[in-house]
Q: What sequence folds into this?
DNA sequence: CCATGGTTATTCTAGACAGCATGTC
DNA sequence: CTAGAATAACCATGG
């Protein structure tokens, strides 16, 4: 089918496609159109990666918009949201407006009403439904990318429920689901009342094979000799072989998949020795620049290691990298500057990074639940192998598995190359999934009775494929009990209603279990505070009792200040339990301390906890006893509770946050907790979100802890000690600049407006533009830095205990002290 | 005494969505 | 019930 023959699209689009060089539709695309894609027909397309799925989505969305509708494109990853947005924006000149909505990217519901195509993550869509976004019922077309992810234990149910809700809200909704090739795409199609287009067709051939001995055997029967000398390894030989190329002089890039971060990094180090020999003089310079950019992103060992290998034309890629690192690496790989990436599975499901050759080095991965190394799913291996073949560059892509002996070669062929991908199975009947989704279903008015809930659940994939219809009812009853006991829903005869807190929890997008934990912790702290105060004041002291009543501060700032005064978190963390007096102990628990709050949110199921390494058990058990008064809630017993281990992991995570707000250097934190810069960002982001939710809950339940929570949240947000909160709130001022300004005697936003410009300039290391911007944002009228000379600033007469270096050192020292105890 | 090289014991293990209200280095 | 790579620790050898 020719693109010129397409009908039902906005004017100019067929021509535009033609101009892009798309004259003829790929067979699966043509099949989709014939199935009624551009006439609003629902469709499941189960086709390989890079076989033109995006155009299928675009045809559906554009034709829907042409009919006056509005389309939604659901992505599984935030990174993909921006990628897709950029792609769809090329239709803007034809009057198509594109908007994105993810947790961290522009999100106002109103603004999206005017867009024709909206790109969002499944969680964000779910959240928008929960919050009754106005434009939800204007949708005429929804595209779900990577729909096979309904199989995912954690996030699959969200996608499943969200699709069911969208379809219920808009009965005539066109549903287009894009899937990798899976075993039972027909079941998915049945569920969505959609036609099925299934195909193995690829625009670029994919040769799959196994390397063993001195050659790769491919699935088409061909062989390619790739000798491996004695004592050498297979992977570098394969990478070098791809770079040597065939007859053409084009250098082929490689993507190497391994099963751990550490393996990715060490493999990259080895591959760098190979790629180094293939880079040209020009490239060497560009790579050096790229390495410098990488070092600039973060001052950590990970960043440094990455820069080193990048300078030689290789890279590693995993979730410990900062997102800026990842983007740089991905872009440079696409630009053919980086010749080889060694990656964990991040890259298999992430943004588009095609490669001439894909080497799947590890096909097993450690899995604690499984109790050892677990073979990866066929689907997962196929996703990795599907990255082989760069459109327009390669005649075909090569995907290679590695075998050490003839037996495992045969096994790999059997297990992965000849094998079909697994079926997808709904994971909706798991209790954690239903906990959150049933509450949301009740709270947003989709159902108000047990029967109503089951009727709604009947529209999910789970119902479509289960052979145990009882199961869902049983789990539903258990979950409803749980929600009732925790006060999130109320029964009135047959009718179930969400309580006000229940509504809030649903809208905050919290797992009800997280919310329950947070509420328990905060109420526990309130109760203990009252008890301690009573004990201190003596039970009959009426004056202090009435004072206590009057405690909640009407003025937030006053309470805020108060919280700051009460919290004593610097310096005495490790050493001061020599217990000066009881009073200090009392003040410690009077308001929840930051550590207490961090631990509270870290032990919530919404926080992904750090892993305990050898030695950590002792370190954190000790810390657990040292800081016991700060924890909100009963501390599990070291000897009796199985939950103790989890408690310690949460403590480790909470400690990381405490270091972060104690202004401990990034590289120090990564070193101390064995994480990458990306992990710090991730933990901080999650903590920010959960503390924000905790703040809302506290204010709704009228708990004084709001002020302490708000401060703890602000500190996590800026990564600063309490004295810098005011400064760090100024746009353009982060943890580093705030500390420098503070050191120079500029301690508040107000100081910034009054201060000697020379001092400001000096504190900001002579960056005039930065200084001007900061002064302007701080509300200073005369912010110009013209004719200001930083050398006019008086020489450092800074009191040393407030000095940046001193504070930093103290923080770092504190950190290392804890290490050795 | 130390550098080097080889062998054995120990360690360690993927990923990443969400509120709200505005802005990091 | 199940692994395997990287690294640390250890030991032997030779200068």
A:
């Amino acid at each position: 089918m020719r693109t010129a023959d397409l009908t039902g699209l906005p004017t100019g689009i067929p021509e535009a496609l033609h101009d892009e060089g798309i004259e003829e539709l790929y067979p699966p695309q043509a099949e989709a159109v014939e199935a009624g894609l551009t006439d609003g027909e629902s469709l499941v397309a189960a086709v390989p990666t890079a076989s033109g799925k995006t155009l299928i989505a675009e045809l559906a969305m554009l034709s829907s918009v042409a009919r006056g509708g509005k389309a939604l494109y659901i992505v599984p990853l935030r990174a993909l949201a921006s990628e897709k947005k950029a792609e769809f924006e090329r239709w803007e000149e034809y009057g198509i407006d594109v908007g994105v909505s993810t947790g961290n990217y522009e999100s106002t519901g109103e603004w999206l009403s005017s867009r024709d195509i909206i790109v969002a993550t499944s969680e964000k869509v779910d959240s928008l439904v929960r919050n009754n976004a106005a434009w939800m019922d204007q949708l005429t077309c929804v595209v779900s990318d990577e729909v096979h992810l309904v199989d995912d234990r954690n996030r699959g149910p969200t996608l499943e429920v969200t699709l069911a809700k969208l379809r219920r809200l808009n009965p005539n909704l066109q549903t287009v689901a894009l899937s990798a090739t899976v075993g039972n795409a027909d079941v998915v199609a049945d569920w969505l009342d959609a036609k099925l287009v299934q195909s193995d067709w690829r625009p670029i051939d994919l040769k799959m094979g196994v390397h063993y001995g001195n050659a790769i055997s491919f699935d088409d029967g061909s062989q390619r000799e790739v000798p491996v000398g004695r004592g050498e390894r297979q992977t570098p030989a394969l990478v070098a072989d791809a770079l040597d190329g065939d007859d053409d002089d084009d250098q082929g890039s490689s993507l190497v998949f391994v099963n751990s971060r550490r393996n990715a990094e060490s493999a990259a180090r080895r591959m760098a020795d190979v790629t180094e020999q293939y880079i040209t003089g020009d490239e060497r310079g560009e790579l050096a620049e790229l390495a410098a950019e990488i070092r600039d992103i973060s001052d950590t060992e990970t960043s440094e290691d990455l820069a080193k290998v990048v300078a030689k034309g290789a890279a590693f890629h995993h979730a410990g990298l900062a997102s800026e690192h990842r983007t740089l690496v991905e872009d440079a790989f696409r630009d053919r500057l980086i010749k080889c990436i060694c990656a964990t599975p991040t890259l298999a499901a992430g943004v588009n990074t095609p490669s001439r050759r894909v080497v799947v080095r590890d096909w097993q991965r450690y899995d604690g639940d499984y109790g050892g190394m677990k073979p990866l799913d066929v689907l997962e291996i196929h996703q990795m192998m599907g990255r082989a073949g760069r459109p327009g560059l390669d005649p075909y892509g090569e995907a290679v598995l590695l075998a050490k002996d003839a037996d495992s070669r045969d096994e790999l062929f059997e297990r992965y190359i000849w094998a079909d991908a697994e079926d997808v199975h709904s994971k909706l009947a798991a209790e954690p999934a239903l906990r959150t989704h049933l509450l949301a279903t009740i709270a947003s008015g989709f159902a108000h009775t047990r029967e109503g809930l089951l009727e709604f659940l009947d529209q999910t994939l789970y119902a479509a494929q289960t052979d145990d219809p009882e199961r869902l009812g049983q789990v539903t009853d258990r979950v409803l009990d749980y929600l009732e006991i925790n006060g999130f829903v109320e029964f009135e005869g047959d009718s179930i209603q969400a309580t006000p807190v229940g509504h809030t929890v649903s809208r905050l997008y919290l797992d009800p279990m997280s919310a329950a934990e947070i509420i328990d912790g905060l109420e526990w702290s309130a109760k203990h505070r009252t008890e301690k105060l009573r004990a201190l004041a003596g039970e009959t002291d009426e004056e202090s009792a009435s004072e206590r009543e009057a405690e909640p501060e009407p003025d937030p700032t006053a309470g805020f200040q108060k919280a700051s005064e009460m919290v004593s978190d610097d310096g005495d963390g490790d050493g001061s339990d020599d217990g000066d007096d009881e009073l200090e102990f009392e003040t410690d628990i009077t308001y929840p301390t930051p550590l207490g709050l961090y631990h509270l949110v870290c032990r919530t199921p919404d926080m992904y906890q750090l892993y305990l390494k050898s030695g950590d058990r002792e370190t954190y058990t000790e810390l657990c006893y040292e800081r016991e008064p700060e924890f909100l809630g009963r501390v599990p017993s070291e000897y009796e509770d199985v939950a103790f281990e989890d408690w310690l992991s949460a403590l480790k995570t909470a400690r990381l946050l405490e270091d972060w707000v104690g202004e401990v250097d990034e590289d120090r934190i990564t070193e101390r907790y064995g994480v990458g810069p990306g992990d710090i960002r991730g933990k901080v982001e999650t903590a920010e979100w959960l503390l924000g939710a905790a703040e809302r809950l506290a204010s709704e339940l009228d708990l004084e802890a709001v002020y302490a929570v708000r401060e703890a949240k602000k500190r996590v947000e800026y990564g600063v000690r309490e004295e810098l909160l005011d400064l760090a709130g100024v746009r353009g001022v982060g943890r580093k600049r705030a500390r420098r300004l503070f050191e120079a005697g500029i301690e508040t936003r107000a100081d910034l407006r009054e201060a000697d410009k020379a001092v400001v300039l000096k504190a900001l290391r002579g960056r005039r533009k930065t200084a001007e911007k900061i002064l302007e944002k701080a509300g200073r009228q005369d912010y110009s830095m013209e004719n200001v000379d930083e050398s006019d600033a008086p020489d450092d007469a800074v009191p040393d205990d407030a000095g940046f270096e001193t504070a930093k050192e103290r923080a770092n020292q504190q950190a290392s002290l804890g290490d050795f105890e």
User: Anything to note?
Assistant: The CA atoms of residues 256 and 359 of chain A lie 5 Å apart.
